[in-house]
Amino acid sequence: MKTLLTQLTVGSLLIVDDSAVQRAHAVALCRELGMRMIYEASSGAEALELLSLLVLPPDLLIVDLEMPRMDGVQLIEKLHERGMRIPMIVASGRETALIQSVETMARNLGLPVLAGLQKPLCSATMLGALMRLDQQPGTLRESIDVDTASALGRQALASAIEAGEIGVHYQPKVDMRTGIVRGVEALARWQHATEGAVRPDHFVALAEREGLIHDLTLAVMDKALAQASAWNAHGLRLSVAVNLSPRLLDQPSLVDEITRLAAAHGLHPEQVMLEITESSVVDCMGAALGVLARLRLKGFGLSIDDYGTGFSSMRQLARIPFTELKIDRSFIHGAHQRTNLRVILQSALDMSRQLGLVSVAEGIETMEDWRLLQECGCNIGQGYLIARPMPAEEMPRWLKRHQGAIVELRAEAPQPLV
Ligand code: C2E
Ligand code: CA
Ligand code: CA
Fold this sequence. Notes:
- By secondary structure, the protein is an alpha/beta fold.
- It folds into 2 domains: 2-135, Rossmann fold, CATH 3.40.50.2300; 146-409, TIM Barrel.
- The protein is built from 16 helices and 14 strands.
- Strands 6-7-9-10-11-12-13-14 form an 8-stranded mixed barrel. The chain has a 5-stranded parallel beta sheet with strand order 2-1-3-4-5, sandwiched between helices.
- α7 (140-162) packs across α8 and α9 runs parallel beside α10 (253-264).
- The termini are far apart.
- The structure holds ligand C2E and calcium ion (2 copies).
- One calcium ion (CA) is lined by residues 185, 243, 275, 305.
Protein backbone atom coordinates (compact mmCIF):
# COMPACT_ATOMS: atom_id res chain seq x y z
CA MET A 1 0.00 0.00 0.00
CA LYS A 2 2.80 2.37 0.99
CA THR A 3 4.72 1.49 -2.15
CA LEU A 4 1.69 1.96 -4.36
CA LEU A 5 0.92 5.38 -2.85
CA THR A 6 4.36 6.86 -3.30
CA GLN A 7 5.01 5.32 -6.70
CA LEU A 8 1.83 6.89 -7.94
CA THR A 9 2.66 10.34 -6.64
CA VAL A 10 6.43 10.63 -6.16
CA GLY A 11 8.54 9.67 -9.14
CA SER A 12 11.65 11.53 -8.00
CA LEU A 13 12.81 13.25 -4.86
CA LEU A 14 15.62 15.54 -3.72
CA ILE A 15 16.89 15.43 -0.14
CA VAL A 16 18.84 18.52 1.00
CA ASP A 17 20.70 18.00 4.27
CA ASP A 18 24.27 18.79 5.32
CA SER A 19 24.47 15.72 7.55
CA ALA A 20 25.43 12.55 5.69
CA VAL A 21 23.93 10.42 8.45
CA GLN A 22 20.58 12.22 8.28
CA ARG A 23 20.58 11.97 4.48
CA ALA A 24 21.24 8.24 4.65
CA HIS A 25 18.36 7.84 7.10
CA ALA A 26 15.99 9.82 4.85
CA VAL A 27 17.10 7.86 1.75
CA ALA A 28 16.48 4.53 3.49
CA LEU A 29 13.05 5.69 4.66
CA CYS A 30 12.04 6.97 1.21
CA ARG A 31 13.17 3.71 -0.40
CA GLU A 32 11.06 1.82 2.12
CA LEU A 33 8.12 4.00 1.00
CA GLY A 34 8.68 2.93 -2.60
CA MET A 35 10.53 5.92 -4.02
CA ARG A 36 13.20 4.98 -6.51
CA MET A 37 14.77 8.10 -8.04
CA ILE A 38 16.40 9.84 -5.08
CA TYR A 39 18.81 12.78 -5.49
CA GLU A 40 20.88 14.11 -2.60
CA ALA A 41 22.47 17.50 -1.96
CA SER A 42 24.63 18.41 1.03
CA SER A 43 24.03 22.17 0.80
CA GLY A 44 21.57 24.73 -0.56
CA ALA A 45 24.03 25.71 -3.30
CA GLU A 46 24.42 22.12 -4.43
CA ALA A 47 20.64 21.69 -4.45
CA LEU A 48 20.13 24.79 -6.62
CA GLU A 49 22.82 23.66 -9.04
CA LEU A 50 21.29 20.22 -9.35
CA LEU A 51 17.83 21.69 -9.89
CA SER A 52 19.15 23.92 -12.67
CA LEU A 53 20.58 20.84 -14.40
CA LEU A 54 17.54 18.59 -14.19
CA VAL A 55 15.27 18.67 -17.23
CA LEU A 56 12.26 17.73 -15.11
CA PRO A 57 12.18 19.01 -11.51
CA PRO A 58 11.76 16.34 -8.82
CA ASP A 59 8.25 15.66 -7.52
CA LEU A 60 9.28 16.34 -3.95
CA LEU A 61 11.92 18.19 -1.91
CA ILE A 62 12.90 17.46 1.67
CA VAL A 63 14.65 20.55 3.05
CA ASP A 64 16.67 20.58 6.26
CA LEU A 65 16.63 23.93 8.10
CA GLU A 66 19.99 24.07 9.87
CA MET A 67 22.75 24.05 7.29
CA PRO A 68 26.00 26.04 7.20
CA ARG A 69 26.25 28.92 4.70
CA MET A 70 22.82 28.82 3.04
CA ASP A 71 20.23 27.65 5.61
CA GLY A 72 16.85 26.09 4.76
CA VAL A 73 15.01 29.41 4.95
CA GLN A 74 17.40 31.03 2.48
CA LEU A 75 17.10 28.03 0.16
CA ILE A 76 13.29 28.33 0.24
CA GLU A 77 13.58 32.05 -0.59
CA LYS A 78 15.87 31.25 -3.52
CA LEU A 79 13.41 28.62 -4.82
CA HIS A 80 10.69 31.24 -4.63
CA GLU A 81 12.81 33.84 -6.47
CA ARG A 82 13.42 31.31 -9.23
CA GLY A 83 9.74 30.45 -9.51
CA MET A 84 10.34 26.80 -8.57
CA ARG A 85 7.12 25.48 -7.07
CA ILE A 86 8.15 22.00 -6.03
CA PRO A 87 6.14 20.29 -3.28
CA MET A 88 8.31 20.21 -0.19
CA ILE A 89 8.64 18.87 3.30
CA VAL A 90 10.48 21.09 5.78
CA ALA A 91 12.45 18.94 8.24
CA SER A 92 14.44 19.87 11.30
CA GLY A 93 15.53 18.65 14.69
CA ARG A 94 14.55 22.02 16.19
CA GLU A 95 11.36 22.92 18.06
CA THR A 96 7.98 22.61 16.32
CA ALA A 97 7.15 26.35 16.63
CA LEU A 98 10.26 27.16 14.57
CA ILE A 99 9.48 24.51 11.95
CA GLN A 100 5.90 25.75 11.73
CA SER A 101 6.94 29.35 11.25
CA VAL A 102 9.14 28.36 8.29
CA GLU A 103 6.30 26.26 6.92
CA THR A 104 3.96 29.26 7.13
CA MET A 105 6.55 31.57 5.58
CA ALA A 106 6.98 29.20 2.61
CA ARG A 107 3.21 28.89 2.18
CA ASN A 108 2.86 32.66 2.26
CA LEU A 109 5.38 32.81 -0.56
CA GLY A 110 2.98 30.57 -2.47
CA LEU A 111 5.17 27.47 -2.26
CA PRO A 112 3.48 24.08 -1.92
CA VAL A 113 4.54 22.87 1.54
CA LEU A 114 3.22 19.43 2.44
CA ALA A 115 4.36 19.44 6.06
CA GLY A 116 6.89 20.61 8.60
CA LEU A 117 8.30 17.52 10.28
CA GLN A 118 10.54 17.01 13.23
CA LYS A 119 13.61 14.85 12.67
CA PRO A 120 14.29 11.99 12.79
CA LEU A 121 11.73 11.39 10.04
CA CYS A 122 9.51 8.35 10.36
CA SER A 123 7.31 6.58 7.84
CA ALA A 124 3.97 7.45 9.53
CA THR A 125 4.49 11.24 9.41
CA MET A 126 6.05 11.01 5.93
CA LEU A 127 3.02 9.11 4.64
CA GLY A 128 0.71 11.69 6.23
CA ALA A 129 2.61 14.44 4.38
CA LEU A 130 2.56 12.56 1.07
CA MET A 131 -1.22 12.15 1.31
CA ARG A 132 -1.40 15.92 0.88
CA LEU A 133 0.38 15.86 -2.48
CA ASP A 134 -2.87 15.74 -4.41
CA GLN A 135 -4.28 18.78 -2.62
CA GLN A 136 -1.42 21.10 -3.49
CA PRO A 137 -2.45 23.90 -5.84
CA GLY A 138 -0.12 24.74 -8.66
CA THR A 139 2.29 21.82 -8.25
CA LEU A 140 3.74 19.93 -11.14
CA ARG A 141 0.79 17.59 -11.33
CA GLU A 142 -1.65 20.44 -11.51
CA SER A 143 0.32 22.51 -13.93
CA ILE A 144 -0.80 19.85 -16.40
CA ASP A 145 -4.34 20.92 -15.59
CA VAL A 146 -3.44 24.58 -16.10
CA ASP A 147 -2.26 23.63 -19.52
CA THR A 148 -5.51 21.78 -20.17
CA ALA A 149 -7.57 24.83 -19.18
CA SER A 150 -5.35 27.19 -21.16
CA ALA A 151 -5.01 24.82 -24.09
CA LEU A 152 -8.75 24.47 -24.33
CA GLY A 153 -8.63 28.21 -24.54
CA ARG A 154 -10.92 31.17 -24.60
CA GLN A 155 -13.18 29.89 -27.34
CA ALA A 156 -13.94 26.60 -25.58
CA LEU A 157 -14.77 28.36 -22.32
CA ALA A 158 -16.82 31.06 -24.06
CA SER A 159 -18.84 28.37 -25.86
CA ALA A 160 -19.33 26.37 -22.66
CA ILE A 161 -20.68 29.47 -20.88
CA GLU A 162 -22.87 30.36 -23.83
CA ALA A 163 -24.26 26.81 -24.08
CA GLY A 164 -25.03 26.69 -20.35
CA GLU A 165 -22.49 23.92 -19.83
CA ILE A 166 -20.90 25.44 -16.75
CA GLY A 167 -22.46 23.48 -13.92
CA VAL A 168 -22.77 24.38 -10.26
CA HIS A 169 -22.09 22.21 -7.22
CA TYR A 170 -23.21 23.12 -3.74
CA GLN A 171 -21.33 22.73 -0.47
CA PRO A 172 -23.33 23.02 2.77
CA LYS A 173 -22.54 25.65 5.42
CA VAL A 174 -23.63 24.37 8.80
CA ASP A 175 -24.43 25.99 12.16
CA MET A 176 -21.64 24.86 14.49
CA ARG A 177 -23.74 24.76 17.64
CA THR A 178 -26.65 22.75 16.27
CA GLY A 179 -25.34 21.11 13.09
CA ILE A 180 -28.30 22.55 11.16
CA VAL A 181 -27.63 23.54 7.52
CA ARG A 182 -27.85 27.31 7.07
CA GLY A 183 -26.77 27.69 3.49
CA VAL A 184 -24.65 26.49 0.61
CA GLU A 185 -21.70 27.82 -1.35
CA ALA A 186 -22.14 27.59 -5.12
CA LEU A 187 -18.98 26.37 -6.87
CA ALA A 188 -18.57 26.41 -10.64
CA ARG A 189 -17.89 23.14 -12.49
CA TRP A 190 -16.79 22.58 -16.10
CA GLN A 191 -16.98 19.04 -17.42
CA HIS A 192 -15.32 19.15 -20.83
CA ALA A 193 -16.52 16.57 -23.35
CA THR A 194 -13.08 15.13 -24.06
CA GLU A 195 -10.79 16.55 -21.37
CA GLY A 196 -13.00 15.69 -18.39
CA ALA A 197 -13.35 17.92 -15.33
CA VAL A 198 -11.36 21.15 -15.54
CA ARG A 199 -10.28 22.62 -12.18
CA PRO A 200 -12.41 25.63 -11.16
CA ASP A 201 -9.54 27.82 -9.98
CA HIS A 202 -7.89 27.26 -13.36
CA PHE A 203 -10.84 28.04 -15.59
CA VAL A 204 -11.80 30.96 -13.34
CA ALA A 205 -8.28 32.32 -13.88
CA LEU A 206 -8.67 31.74 -17.63
CA ALA A 207 -11.99 33.59 -17.55
CA GLU A 208 -10.35 36.48 -15.70
CA ARG A 209 -7.49 36.67 -18.20
CA GLU A 210 -9.74 36.44 -21.23
CA GLY A 211 -12.48 38.86 -20.24
CA LEU A 212 -15.07 36.13 -19.65
CA ILE A 213 -15.40 36.43 -15.88
CA HIS A 214 -18.49 38.62 -16.03
CA ASP A 215 -20.40 36.10 -18.15
CA LEU A 216 -19.12 33.16 -16.10
CA THR A 217 -20.16 34.74 -12.80
CA LEU A 218 -23.61 35.65 -14.03
CA ALA A 219 -24.09 32.15 -15.47
CA VAL A 220 -23.17 30.58 -12.10
CA MET A 221 -25.30 33.08 -10.20
CA ASP A 222 -28.30 32.48 -12.45
CA LYS A 223 -28.17 28.72 -11.83
CA ALA A 224 -27.48 29.08 -8.11
CA LEU A 225 -30.32 31.55 -7.53
CA ALA A 226 -32.73 29.43 -9.59
CA GLN A 227 -31.77 26.49 -7.38
CA ALA A 228 -32.25 28.42 -4.15
CA SER A 229 -35.64 29.50 -5.38
CA ALA A 230 -36.56 25.87 -6.18
CA TRP A 231 -35.48 24.83 -2.66
CA ASN A 232 -37.58 27.68 -1.22
CA ALA A 233 -40.57 26.26 -3.05
CA HIS A 234 -39.97 22.95 -1.26
CA GLY A 235 -39.79 24.68 2.10
CA LEU A 236 -36.01 24.50 2.33
CA ARG A 237 -34.73 28.01 2.93
CA LEU A 238 -30.98 28.11 2.43
CA SER A 239 -28.79 31.13 1.90
CA VAL A 240 -26.74 30.75 -1.26
CA ALA A 241 -23.20 32.08 -1.55
CA VAL A 242 -21.62 32.97 -4.88
CA ASN A 243 -17.95 33.83 -5.41
CA LEU A 244 -17.29 37.27 -6.91
CA SER A 245 -14.05 37.88 -8.74
CA PRO A 246 -12.35 41.18 -7.79
CA ARG A 247 -12.19 41.93 -11.50
CA LEU A 248 -15.93 42.55 -11.43
CA LEU A 249 -15.88 45.16 -8.71
CA ASP A 250 -14.96 48.01 -11.04
CA GLN A 251 -18.14 47.48 -13.06
CA PRO A 252 -20.88 49.69 -11.56
CA SER A 253 -23.52 47.88 -13.69
CA LEU A 254 -22.90 44.77 -11.57
CA VAL A 255 -25.14 45.99 -8.74
CA ASP A 256 -28.17 46.31 -10.98
CA GLU A 257 -27.45 43.03 -12.77
CA ILE A 258 -27.28 41.06 -9.51
CA THR A 259 -30.32 42.85 -8.08
CA ARG A 260 -32.33 42.09 -11.24
CA LEU A 261 -31.27 38.44 -11.16
CA ALA A 262 -32.36 38.00 -7.52
CA ALA A 263 -35.70 39.65 -8.28
CA ALA A 264 -36.19 37.49 -11.38
CA HIS A 265 -35.84 34.37 -9.22
CA GLY A 266 -38.09 35.81 -6.51
CA LEU A 267 -35.28 35.84 -3.94
CA HIS A 268 -34.78 38.41 -1.25
CA PRO A 269 -31.19 39.79 -1.37
CA GLU A 270 -30.78 38.73 2.29
CA GLN A 271 -30.76 35.12 1.08
CA VAL A 272 -27.78 35.79 -1.20
CA MET A 273 -24.19 36.00 0.04
CA LEU A 274 -21.39 37.34 -2.14
CA GLU A 275 -17.90 36.03 -1.30
CA ILE A 276 -14.94 38.27 -2.09
CA THR A 277 -11.37 37.23 -1.27
CA GLU A 278 -9.55 39.16 1.44
CA SER A 279 -6.53 39.77 -0.80
CA SER A 280 -8.70 41.60 -3.33
CA VAL A 281 -10.21 44.00 -0.80
CA VAL A 282 -6.98 45.12 0.84
CA ASP A 283 -6.53 47.86 -1.74
CA CYS A 284 -10.22 48.23 -2.35
CA MET A 285 -10.80 51.88 -3.18
CA GLY A 286 -13.08 54.21 -5.06
CA ALA A 287 -15.36 52.47 -7.53
CA ALA A 288 -14.98 49.00 -5.98
CA LEU A 289 -15.84 50.30 -2.54
CA GLY A 290 -18.90 51.99 -4.04
CA VAL A 291 -20.03 48.72 -5.67
CA LEU A 292 -19.69 46.84 -2.36
CA ALA A 293 -21.49 49.55 -0.42
CA ARG A 294 -24.39 49.55 -2.91
CA LEU A 295 -24.66 45.74 -2.85
CA ARG A 296 -24.91 45.92 0.93
CA LEU A 297 -27.47 48.74 0.72
CA LYS A 298 -29.63 46.49 -1.46
CA GLY A 299 -29.47 43.86 1.29
CA PHE A 300 -26.98 41.30 -0.09
CA GLY A 301 -24.63 39.64 2.38
CA LEU A 302 -20.90 40.25 1.86
CA SER A 303 -18.35 37.69 2.93
CA ILE A 304 -14.57 38.09 3.27
CA ASP A 305 -13.29 34.88 1.69
CA ASP A 306 -9.93 33.18 2.40
CA TYR A 307 -9.40 35.39 5.45
CA GLY A 308 -5.83 35.22 6.75
CA THR A 309 -4.15 35.06 3.35
CA GLY A 310 -4.50 38.73 2.43
CA PHE A 311 -2.77 40.55 5.31
CA SER A 312 -5.49 43.14 5.74
CA SER A 313 -5.74 45.18 8.89
CA MET A 314 -8.83 45.46 11.03
CA ARG A 315 -9.09 49.10 9.93
CA GLN A 316 -9.13 48.13 6.25
CA LEU A 317 -11.82 45.51 6.86
CA ALA A 318 -13.92 47.78 9.05
CA ARG A 319 -14.41 50.32 6.25
CA ILE A 320 -16.07 47.72 4.01
CA PRO A 321 -19.61 46.72 5.01
CA PHE A 322 -18.97 42.98 5.37
CA THR A 323 -21.41 40.68 7.13
CA GLU A 324 -19.36 37.46 7.26
CA LEU A 325 -15.73 36.47 7.79
CA LYS A 326 -14.57 33.20 6.27
CA ILE A 327 -11.31 31.92 7.69
CA ASP A 328 -9.06 30.32 5.08
CA ARG A 329 -8.75 26.56 5.23
CA SER A 330 -4.97 26.68 5.69
CA PHE A 331 -5.64 27.85 9.26
CA ILE A 332 -8.30 25.25 9.90
CA HIS A 333 -6.94 21.91 8.82
CA GLY A 334 -4.84 20.41 11.60
CA ALA A 335 -5.49 23.36 13.94
CA HIS A 336 -6.20 21.01 16.85
CA GLN A 337 -2.59 19.80 16.70
CA ARG A 338 -0.93 23.17 16.25
CA THR A 339 -0.86 25.75 18.99
CA ASN A 340 0.31 28.52 16.63
CA LEU A 341 -2.73 28.06 14.41
CA ARG A 342 -5.02 28.11 17.42
CA VAL A 343 -3.75 31.55 18.41
CA ILE A 344 -4.38 32.89 14.90
CA LEU A 345 -7.81 31.27 14.81
CA GLN A 346 -8.84 32.69 18.13
CA SER A 347 -7.74 36.18 17.18
CA ALA A 348 -9.60 35.97 13.84
CA LEU A 349 -12.73 34.88 15.69
CA ASP A 350 -12.32 37.68 18.26
CA MET A 351 -11.96 40.21 15.46
CA SER A 352 -15.01 38.82 13.72
CA ARG A 353 -17.03 39.29 16.91
CA GLN A 354 -15.74 42.82 17.41
CA LEU A 355 -16.75 43.74 13.87
CA GLY A 356 -20.15 42.11 14.37
CA LEU A 357 -19.60 39.52 11.64
CA VAL A 358 -20.76 35.93 11.33
CA SER A 359 -17.66 33.72 11.42
CA VAL A 360 -17.20 30.78 9.05
CA ALA A 361 -14.48 28.12 9.09
CA GLU A 362 -13.87 26.48 5.72
CA GLY A 363 -11.97 23.25 5.09
CA ILE A 364 -13.00 21.37 8.23
CA GLU A 365 -11.94 17.81 7.53
CA THR A 366 -11.82 16.13 10.93
CA MET A 367 -13.97 15.89 14.03
CA GLU A 368 -11.03 17.20 16.11
CA ASP A 369 -10.93 20.41 14.07
CA TRP A 370 -14.74 20.68 14.28
CA ARG A 371 -14.65 20.41 18.08
CA LEU A 372 -11.83 22.92 18.41
CA LEU A 373 -13.66 25.52 16.31
CA GLN A 374 -16.84 24.86 18.19
CA GLU A 375 -15.01 25.51 21.48
CA CYS A 376 -13.51 28.71 20.04
CA GLY A 377 -17.04 29.92 19.27
CA CYS A 378 -17.00 29.82 15.47
CA ASN A 379 -20.53 30.27 14.08
CA ILE A 380 -20.60 28.31 10.81
CA GLY A 381 -18.56 25.36 9.52
CA GLN A 382 -17.92 24.07 6.01
CA GLY A 383 -15.69 21.26 4.79
CA TYR A 384 -15.31 17.65 3.73
CA LEU A 385 -16.23 16.46 7.25
CA ILE A 386 -19.76 17.75 6.63
CA ALA A 387 -19.98 17.30 2.87
CA ARG A 388 -18.05 17.71 -0.33
CA PRO A 389 -19.55 20.03 -2.95
CA MET A 390 -22.34 18.10 -4.72
CA PRO A 391 -24.85 18.52 -7.55
CA ALA A 392 -28.23 19.89 -6.44
CA GLU A 393 -29.91 16.52 -7.13
CA GLU A 394 -27.84 14.93 -4.37
CA MET A 395 -28.87 17.43 -1.70
CA PRO A 396 -32.12 15.74 -0.59
CA ARG A 397 -30.35 12.40 -0.03
CA TRP A 398 -27.46 14.12 1.75
CA LEU A 399 -29.85 16.09 3.96
CA LYS A 400 -31.46 12.83 5.08
CA ARG A 401 -28.10 11.29 5.94
CA HIS A 402 -27.04 14.50 7.66
CA GLN A 403 -30.08 14.30 9.96
CA GLY A 404 -28.59 11.08 11.30
CA ALA A 405 -25.15 12.62 11.86
CA ILE A 406 -26.38 15.82 13.48
CA VAL A 407 -26.29 14.51 17.07
CA GLU A 408 -22.55 13.89 16.75
CA LEU A 409 -21.92 17.44 15.54
CA ARG A 410 -23.96 19.24 18.15
CA ALA A 411 -22.13 21.18 20.84
CA GLU A 412 -22.24 19.27 24.09
CA ALA A 413 -24.80 20.83 26.40
CA PRO A 414 -23.23 22.38 29.50
CA GLN A 415 -23.30 19.99 32.46
CA PRO A 416 -26.09 20.80 34.92
CA LEU A 417 -24.88 22.20 38.24
CA VAL A 418 -25.25 19.86 41.20
P1 C2E B 1 -13.05 28.89 -2.53
O1 C2E B 1 -13.99 30.02 -2.78
O2 C2E B 1 -12.12 29.04 -1.37
O3 C2E B 1 -13.93 27.59 -2.40
C1 C2E B 1 -13.69 26.54 -1.52
C2 C2E B 1 -12.86 25.47 -2.17
O4 C2E B 1 -12.41 24.59 -1.14
C3 C2E B 1 -13.65 24.60 -3.13
O5 C2E B 1 -12.74 24.17 -4.16
C4 C2E B 1 -14.03 23.42 -2.26
O6 C2E B 1 -14.28 22.24 -2.99
C5 C2E B 1 -12.79 23.28 -1.42
N1 C2E B 1 -13.07 22.64 -0.14
C6 C2E B 1 -14.20 22.66 0.58
N2 C2E B 1 -14.08 21.97 1.72
C7 C2E B 1 -12.83 21.49 1.74
C8 C2E B 1 -12.10 20.67 2.68
O7 C2E B 1 -12.58 20.26 3.73
N3 C2E B 1 -10.80 20.40 2.36
C9 C2E B 1 -10.22 20.82 1.21
N4 C2E B 1 -8.95 20.50 0.96
N5 C2E B 1 -10.88 21.60 0.30
C10 C2E B 1 -12.18 21.92 0.57
P2 C2E B 1 -13.13 24.28 -5.71
O8 C2E B 1 -14.57 23.97 -5.93
O9 C2E B 1 -12.10 23.48 -6.44
O10 C2E B 1 -12.95 25.80 -6.04
C11 C2E B 1 -11.69 26.40 -5.98
C12 C2E B 1 -11.77 27.89 -6.08
O11 C2E B 1 -12.23 28.29 -7.37
C13 C2E B 1 -12.74 28.51 -5.10
O12 C2E B 1 -12.13 28.62 -3.83
C14 C2E B 1 -12.99 29.86 -5.77
O13 C2E B 1 -11.94 30.74 -5.47
C15 C2E B 1 -12.92 29.51 -7.23
N6 C2E B 1 -14.29 29.40 -7.76
C16 C2E B 1 -15.11 28.33 -7.83
N7 C2E B 1 -16.28 28.68 -8.40
C17 C2E B 1 -16.21 30.01 -8.69
C18 C2E B 1 -17.10 30.97 -9.30
O14 C2E B 1 -18.24 30.66 -9.66
N8 C2E B 1 -16.63 32.24 -9.43
C19 C2E B 1 -15.38 32.61 -9.00
N9 C2E B 1 -15.00 33.90 -9.14
N10 C2E B 1 -14.53 31.75 -8.43
C20 C2E B 1 -14.94 30.46 -8.28
CA1 CA C 1 -15.51 31.00 -1.59
CA1 CA D 1 -12.25 30.21 0.53
